[in-house]
From TrEMBL:
Keywords: Glycosyltransferase, Transferase
Residue ranges of the TM segments: none
Family from the record: Belongs to the glycosyltransferase 2 family.
One Pfam family recorded for the sequence: Glycos_transf_2
Name used for this protein in its record: Glycosyl transferase family protein
Nucleus keyword on record: no
GO terms of molecular function: glycosyltransferase activity
InterPro entries assigned: Glyco_trans_2-like, Nucleotide-diphossugar_trans
Domain of life: Archaea
Residue stretches making up the Glycosyltransferase 2-like domain: 6-112
SUPFAM superfamilies reported in the protein's UniProt record: Nucleotide-diphospho-sugar transferases (SSF53448)
Amino acid sequence: MKIAGVVVLYHPEKENIIESINSYLDYIDVLYAIDNTEKSNEKHREVINNLKEIDKIEYIPNNKNLGIAKALNMGAKRAIEQGYKWLLTMDQDSKFKEGSFDKMLEFIKNNSENKIGIISPFHLTISNLSLNFKNEYEEVLTAMTSGNLLNLKAYQEVGPFLEDLFIDYVDVEYCLRLNKYGYKVIVVNSSILIHKLGNIREIRIPLWKTLYPTNHNPLRRYYITRNRFYVMELYKNEFPDFCKRDKIAFFKELATILLLENSKLTKLKYIIKGYMDFRQKKMGKIDE
């Protein structure tokens, strides 16, 4: 089975990126390292030089931030042109637990006749440490981008990632679109991906519960808000229950930001701007 991979880079750090790549490089034939870093410095050049020394890596500099969706589409287009059937999509700071990639390959082998769009690992974060699964795998509506095996036949049928989203909710929209076209999104729970989500931290509230604010910066809050409402508007008829849950999640996150996170007013300003730009149909990279 021919598998290509794409990892989207943005000011990568040498120690983290090499360790992450080594956790999956042996399982794929080629890795497109697509770099959205705007301005290079000595530290960045050192990382890139190290990546270029690895035979399987094809380094592709954009010399500016074109967004996650554009980079993923560049990788998918290249993989299709070179005859690959599956594309591994990776964040630069995610890594597979040893033996986990085999579990996804095994699932593909045993379910080759099913209409599968994405096979995802279980994303292990500080807020999601439970590994007590009832089922070895499960069908879901959405999965995060990192660690996914994307069926390139499905990609060619349903179309590319939405570049107008730029970053955030690119994966949510794409998974919903796959489901709309009848493709399944499968999480293989025995395949573990160690994933960094924002700057998440644990806050324990005595006699109540533990909360995990993500502490995304204000700019990310802009994209999350704008794109969340865009996706809800786009799929409100096909997936009403999902959209209802996500709207509730928005208000819960807003409360968490105002109660527990720093830079509250700045984040609130960007959240409001994100919602207003959604209403005014301003998409793509933010106009600051």
